[in-house]
């Protein structure tokens, strides 16, 4: 072999890993070992391996469940089951998971070498193609989700504006005349206040005006506050939904 091939051997018996390393390292393989299924899954997440050999009987997660998880996450990776406990039920589960082959104990150098060669041969003709196809599919899925989220964001924003627009327009229509009159009155009051006598009179008028306008201001708050509160709640709810969609 001109290139080194990385394989992962999963077995709680260190003798098995040493056997694979002794046989395959001379044939152009890099053999890495894991003591249990969880350790193997962590290693597979961190690094690329061209084949996985796993014992069927291990503490915790067994080899068949490991094969199911590996094939679900990395369907292009061949998984070979090492077993001295080849029950029909286990073999059915393993075949359903998509394992490449079964390697029977006791292990011989010839069986190990042949099994590794067959597993690597399984992936070599189409190795890059399925991986790239899956990655492209994943990219398309993520981009589609982003576009869908953006469309929902735009729809929510439009709905919020549609709801808030008439309410804000009503506020402007109702309050603008009062704001204009108040601004004119304030400007005129400041000018007259510079005259001492007029200033005293204006202060008196101001106090009277405040006294007389207080009920009307209170009434305005009572009438307008529900609309203002509704608009604010609608806007805050829309922003919260938009933020949630962006986070997803």
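-> sequence recovered:
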């Amino acid at each position: 072999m001109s290139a080194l091939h990385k394989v992962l051997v999963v077995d709680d018996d260190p003798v098995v890993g040493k056997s694979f390393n002794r046989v395959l390292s001379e044939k152009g393989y890099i053999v890495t070992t894991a003591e249990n299924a969880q350790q193997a899954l962590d290693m597979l997440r961190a690094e690329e391996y061209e084949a996985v050999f796993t014992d069927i009987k291990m503490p915790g997660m067994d080899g068949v469940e490991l094969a199911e998880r590996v094939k679900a996450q990395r369907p292009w990776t061949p998984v070979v089951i090492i077993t001295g406990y080849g029950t029909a039920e286990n073999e059915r589960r393993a075949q359903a998971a998509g394992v490449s082959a079964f390697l029977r104990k006791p292990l011989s150098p010839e069986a190990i070498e042949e099994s590794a060669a067959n597993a690597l041969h399984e992936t070599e003709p189409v190795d890059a193609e399925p991986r790239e196809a899956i990655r492209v599919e994943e990219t398309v899925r993520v981009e589609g989700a982003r576009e869908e989220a953006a469309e929902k964001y735009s729809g929510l924003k439009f709905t919020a504006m549609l709801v808030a627009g008439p309410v804000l327009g009503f506020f402007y229509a109702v309050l603008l005349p009062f704001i204009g009159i108040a601004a004119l009155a304030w400007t005129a009051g400041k000018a007259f206040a510079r005259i001492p006598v007029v200033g005293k009179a204006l202060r008196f008028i101001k106090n009277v005006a405040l006294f007389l306008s207080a009920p009307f201001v209170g009434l305005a708050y009572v009438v307008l506050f529900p609309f203002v509160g509704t608009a604010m709640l609608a806007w805050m709810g829309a922003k919260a939904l938009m933020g949630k969609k962006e986070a997803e």
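The beta strands are 5-10, 29-34, 51-55, 79-83, 101-104.
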